[in-house]
Specification:
The chain is of the alpha+beta class. It has 18 helices and 16 strands. The protein is about 40% helix and about 15% strand. β9 and β10 form a beta hairpin. α1 (about 30-45) packs antiparallel against α8 (about 225-245), α5 (about 115-135) packs antiparallel against α6 (about 140-155) and α8 packs parallel to α12. The structure holds histidyl-adenosine monophosphate.
Length: about 500
């Protein structure tokens, strides 16, 4: 039996999409395209250009940016070691000297990462080999054995591949790209947007997936002028407005800077310790790891306690206070309606000052369609120059879900013209007509085999075609083609140029 062939008695396995992932199918994909096209257009009018970073990066990039204690990094990343397949563990007859040198060669050739830790490991392995050979010279069998074991033990420390992760978000990648491509040399600020899949190992539910899609934007470099914060928010709101997203609510907060936030966090921690016994297990743990996240809690029993906690707005330093007030003023100048929400802290570590989140209707508990904020200093954390930054990401799955729930996700389905042809002469004319109509921008269905007119019209109906173009040998001989409007059954005859003109006019009328 050839390789890959299925044994007769075995029922072939049926495959399903992995939990938390899904197929986006037509006609829904047309909504996705419309949303993405609108983003290209709206973001373009604000001077943003598209960036397409890769889908996986070094795990460390995300750990450094988002924070190793966050849920995203500590629990939700799809991480893996990028191990080159050529390297197998040493076999029983392997000579450790040869194996060590093979590793060195692989490191020199870039097959194994040439990191300081790997270099140290190879040096240690060589040291053990030297001890092994010294013991061999003295014929100390036990020592030889021990040195070999130590060599194998060191070997385990070798990182054969880079630690990689599927991106859980794209801000870190955009900042990495900013540094890597020296974008600080470009006119500042650099305004970039992206769209694409992100990956988080979360518990799937409505509006929460393990592969989900974001449309995001980042403004990097230049100043931290509050007008930049306001314009970025204005851009998302304009985008949502254009899509007619319903029930849009913008929540705004300032979480301070490296000067004032740590003091507030300590104050918050001290207050939380006092009420610790009345908090749930998650919040109790967060008193230590990240007290700000307690403010995020949705637990009913904690709401009364949270309401009495100190608020960051009362503890901002003068600069942050001024910045926050100016952001609000700038939003008002742009007619952007917001609600201040002192409990909005966001779940990623890189934020400072402005944070915001937008909710929309019809989404249940996962109702945040957009989250964002300022992250001055993140680029420096990634080895770049001192850089200001602010951005947001929209959850495209949730955005589309909300549009669907509120009936704003209608898409044009079906075809413009179904060509019902019969007869050999008609076939050639039908092929030509299809070509011309498609060239003129109409969507055309041309049945591959001849069908009786009755059957063809039935199909045209099922496909939701607007018109059926009837081409029989008579029509072809006369040069007069019959166009049937399927909605009302009316028919009219046209010459070929008249037909194109008629369809163009009708299309212009309906759009
Ligand atoms: P985020 O709040 O983690 O922020 O995600 C932004 C949005 O992505 C959320 O509001 C939500 O709509 C969507 N989202 C997140 N996780 C899922 C999921 N599992 N399933 C479906 N949708 C999801 C960030 O990612 C930041 N990078 C935003 C940013 C850009 N801040 C500054 N620049």
């Amino acid at each position: 039996m050839s390789e890959g062939a299925v044994k007769k008695e075995e029922k072939p396995r049926k495959f399903q999409a992995i939990r938390g992932t899904r197929d986006l199918l037509p006609p829904e994909t047309a909504v996705w395209n419309r949303v993405e096209q609108t983003a290209h257009e709206v973001f373009g009018t604000f001077g943003f250009a598209e960036i397409r970073p890769p889908i996986f990066e070094l795990t460390e990039l995300f750990a450094r940016s988002i924070g190793s204690d966050t849920d995203i990094v500590s629990k939700e990343m799809f991480a893996f070691e990028d191990r080159p397949s050529e390297l197998s563990p040493p076999g029983p007859n392997e000579i450790p000297d040869d194996y060590t040198e093979a590793i060195q060669k692989s490191m020199d050739g870039g097959l194994i990462p040439s990191t300081p830790s790997n270099k140290r490991t190879v040096a240690a392995m060589r040291q053990k080999l030297a001890e092994l050979h010294a013991a061999e010279d003295k014929r100390e069998t036990q020592e030889v054995e021990n040195a070999y074991l130590w060599w194998a033990f060191e070997l385990q420390d070798l990182k054969l591949g880079d630690a990689l992760a599927l991106r859980p978000e794209a801000t870190a990648s955009v900042c990495r790209a900013y540094v890597e491509h020296g974008m600080q040399q470009l006119p500042q600020p650099v305004k970039l947007y992206y769209m694409g899949p992100m990956f988080r190992r979360e518990r799937p539910q409505k509006g929460r997936y393990r592969q989900f899609y974001q449309i995001g934007a980042e403004v990097l470099g230049g100043s931290d002028a509050p007008a930049i914060d306001a314009e970025v928010i204005e851009m998302v709101m304009t985008f949502f407005d254009r899509l007619e997203l319903q029930g849009v609510q913008l929540d705004l907060n300032s979480i301070g800077c490296r000067e004032c936030r740590p003091k507030y966090v300590e104050l918050l921690r001290a207050e939380l310790v006092k009420v610790k016994d009345n908090l749930g297990a998650d919040s109790q743990r967060r008193i230590e790891t990240n007290p700000l996240r307690v403010l995020d809690s949705k637990l009913e029993t904690e709401q009364g306690i949270i309401a009495t906690l100190p608020r960051i707005a009362d503890h901002l330093c003068d600069d942050c206070k001024t910045h926050y007030a100016a952001v609000k003023h700038q939003l008002e100048m742009r007619g952007v309606i917001y609600r201040e929400n002192w409990r909005l802290v966001r779940g990623l570590d890189y934020y400072m000052r402005t944070t915001f989140e937008i909710t929309a209707q019809g989404l249940g508990s996962q109702n945040a369609v957009c989250g964002g904020g300022r992250y001055d200093g993140l680029v420096e954390l990634l080895g770049g120059p001192a850089t200001k930054g602010i951005g947001f990401a929209i959850g495209e799955d949730r955005l589309i879900l909300s549009l669907q729930e509120s009936g704003k996700a209608a898409v044009q389905q079906g075809r413009d013209v179904y060509i019902a042809w019969m007869g050999e002469h008609a076939r050639a004319t039908a092929i030509r007509a299809a070509k011309d109509l498609r060239k003129a921008g109409f969507s055309v269905e041309l049945p591959p085999v001849e069908l009786k007119f009755g059957k063809a019209l039935g199909q045209a109906d099922k496909l939701g075609a607007k018109y059926a173009l009837i081409l029989g040998d008579n029509e072809v001989a006369e040069g007069l083609w019959t166009l049937k409007t399927l909605a009302d059954g009316s028919q009219a005859k046209f010459t070929e140029p008249e037909l194109l003109e008629h369809l163009r006019k009708q299309k212009a009328l309906s759009s």
